[in-house]
Amino acid sequence: MCGEYNCVTLPVIGDPAPDFEVETTHGPIKLSEFRGKWVVMFSHPADFTPVCTTEFIAFSQVAEELKSLNVQLLGLSIDSVHSHLAWVRNLKEKMGVDVPFPIIADLSMEVAKKYGMIHPGQSSTATIRTVFFIDDKGVMRAMIYYPLTNGRYIPEIIRLVKALQTTDKHGVATPANWQPGEKVVVPAPKTQAGMEKRLTEGYECKEWYLCFKKI
Known about the structure:
Elements: E1 21-24, E2 29-30, E3 38-43, H1 50-68, E4 71-77, H2 81-95, E5 103-105, H3 110-114, E6 129-134, E7 140-146, H4 154-170, E8 184-186, H5 192-198, E9 204-207, E10 210-213
Parallel strand pairs: 3-4, 4-5
Antiparallel strand pairs: 1-2, 1-5, 3-6, 6-7, 8-10, 9-10
């Protein structure tokens, strides 16, 4: 992705997520160690900043729900481990919040550059707010990018995890504004015979290419 003055390398949905080995507040980790789990990795511009503080509180509050979905949550900024640890302690002492997930220290910007987190139009020294959804096979499944100024809507992150897992489990798609428990979209037929058959298969069809079912 190239702007007027720079190019940013972005990961590609459907490709293996770039591997890395890093220091975190929970000790050294390697992304590939989490195979068998989904990974939600999010970046924040800097420790001890107001919007990031609200986000870490919000992510900490849903960490158990994500864990129940077989998701490993990872935070990241280009601050040091010592800065992360001090901030974690501050969040506990001042906000009453325990941060239960690792925070990656990326002073070299190695991970940030691999994942396209540095957008010079926003800042050349801080990561923008990104969220990466990596499945249990290590494949990049979705990405969301936000500017420095605006915090994320955490329920959408949980909803998207559930949507992706529903797609994998049942071989379906999810419609706009889908919430868990609602009807899903049956894949459209690919042949004329399949098109004719689709309308007789008992689905709730608006048209041959748009059919819903309960799961």
